[in-house]
Amino acid sequence: MNFDSHTSDVVAAAVRAINLLTPGHTRGREYTATGYDDYADRSPEEVEELRAYAMGLRSVFAAVDDGRVDDACTTVNTILRDFQAAPFLTRHDGEPWHLHFHAPDASWARSHIASMATGLAVVLGNPMHDRLGVCTAPACDRVFVDVTRNGTKRFCSTACQNRVKTAAFRARHRD
Ligand SMILES: [Zn+2]
């Protein structure tokens, strides 16, 4: 299944930002989220600003995962309002006219969050709104968007899927 390509791109960007910038656990290990490598072209201040906002986006995934869709939608609406997410056509850097979803003078982090929140809003306003999730493997809380045909994704990665499979296999063979 597919959301339109812009939505898919910005939702993928949201998953990436949340998983890189919010601490917790990943694939069975503690994750401190201290690296900046993926945003090497941005200043540490810009990345820190994005990190602060990424926590809010994480709560949207957590709410959907808990079945609290009302909370997820309320949170997204708050972000859209606070970040002045509004569509406008723009043309810059030699690109053709294209749609942006943030205040024209917003900082990089605020622009990025406004776009990602708009993408999440499209997902939540869609019958496929339950496709946002949090990894169910032990010691992992990374988020994902489930684009499988029947919506059965439970893990952030094949690494987590394999960890759970291996643990189940060992448990069966212990007895
Ligand atoms: Zn995982």
Query: What is the helix/strand order?
Result: HEEHHEEHEEH
**Order of strands in the sheet with most strands:** 1-2
The tally of structural domains comes to 1
Q: What is the H level of CATH, i.e. the homologous superfamily?
A: Jann2411-like domain
How many alpha or pi helices? Answer: 5
The main pleated sheet reads as: 2 strands, antiparallel
Radius of gyration from CA coordinates:
17 Å
**Fraction of helical residues:** 40-55%
What is the oligomer described by this structure?
A: single chain
Specify the overall morphology: globular
Mean pLDDT: 91
Which fold name corresponds to the CATH topology? Jann2411-like fold
CATH architecture: Orthogonal Bundle
Residue windows where pLDDT falls under 50 for at least 5 positions: none
Q: Could you give the count of β-strands?
A: 6
CATH class: Mainly Alpha
The small-molecule ligands in this entry are: zinc ion
What would you note in describing this structure?
By secondary structure, this protein is mainly alpha-helical. The chain has a single domain, classed as Jann2411-like domain (Jann2411-like fold, Orthogonal Bundle), CATH 1.10.3300. It is built from five helices and six strands. It has helices spanning 5-21, 44-65, 69-82, 108-124, 158-174; strands at residues 24-26, 29-31, 88-90, 98-100, 132-134, 143-145. The chain has a two-stranded antiparallel sheet. A hairpin with a 2-residue loop joins strand 1 (24-26) and strand 2. Helix 1 crosses helix 4, helix 2 (44-65) runs antiparallel to helix 3 (69-82) and helix 2 (44-65) runs parallel beside helix 4. The model has no long low-confidence stretch (mean pLDDT 91). Bound molecules: zinc ion.
